[in-house]
């Protein structure tokens, strides 16, 4: 069975670098010209588009959503990572992490949401504690086990 649905597309001639679905069913699209677009499906079935302005001219390489909060991370060719987080009815907060000296090729949060795994062309893989970087409203914090 093939299912078809009208999906949003930025109608931009630039190449898409990352497509990521959040647990809230929002779609993050990052393009090579650093457009960061979030599509959120409303109750009426229509998609609402939000642009997030990232303060860099570097080329994006990868992106991922946080597993529990309304936050995402984007890696760049310069080795920089931006973490963007937002609470309801507030503006986006953007934090910058400088840990790599070459392109970030992969980023992903741990299931707890406290550690961001980053891999780079500088031959390093780092685990970054993001606990203090976000407005952590993580549910079931008591159920998280550290080993």
UniProtKB/TrEMBL annotation:
Top-level taxonomic group: Eukaryota
Keyword match Endoplasmic reticulum: no
InterPro entries with a match to the protein in the record: ARPC1, WD40/YVTN_repeat-like_dom_sf, WD40_repeat_dom_sf
Biological processes, Gene Ontology terms: Arp2/3 complex-mediated actin nucleation
Compartments (UniProt record): Cytoplasm
Assigned keywords, A-Z: Cytoplasm, Cytoskeleton, Repeat, WD repeat
Chain ranges passing through the membrane: none
One Gene Ontology molecular-function label: actin filament binding
Principal place of residence: cytoplasm
UniProt xrefs under SUPFAM superfamilies: WD40 repeat-like
A single Gene Ontology CC term: cytoplasm
Signal sequence bounds: none
Keyword Cytoplasm carried by entry: yes
UniProt protein name: Anaphase-promoting complex subunit 4 WD40 domain-containing protein
Species name: Plasmodium falciparum (isolate NF54)
């Amino acid at each position: 069975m093939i299912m078809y649905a009208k999906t949003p597309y930025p109608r931009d001639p630039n190449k898409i670098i990352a497509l990521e679905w959040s647990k809230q069913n929002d779609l993050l699209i990052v393009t090579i010209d650093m457009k960061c677009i979030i599509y959120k499906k409303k109750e009426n079935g229509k998609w609402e588009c939000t642009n997030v302005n990232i303060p860099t001219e570097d080329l994006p390489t990868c992106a991922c959503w946080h597993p529990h909060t309304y936050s995402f991370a984007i890696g760049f060719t310069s080795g920089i990572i931006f973490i963007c987080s937002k609470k309801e009815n507030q503006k986006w907060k953007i934090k910058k992490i400088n840990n790599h000296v070459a392109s970030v090729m992969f980023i992903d949060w741990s299931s707890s949401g406290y550690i961001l795994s980053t891999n780079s062309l500088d031959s390093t893989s780092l685990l970054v504690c993001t606990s203090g970087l976000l407005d952590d409203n993580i549910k079931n914090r008591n159920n998280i086990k550290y080993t």
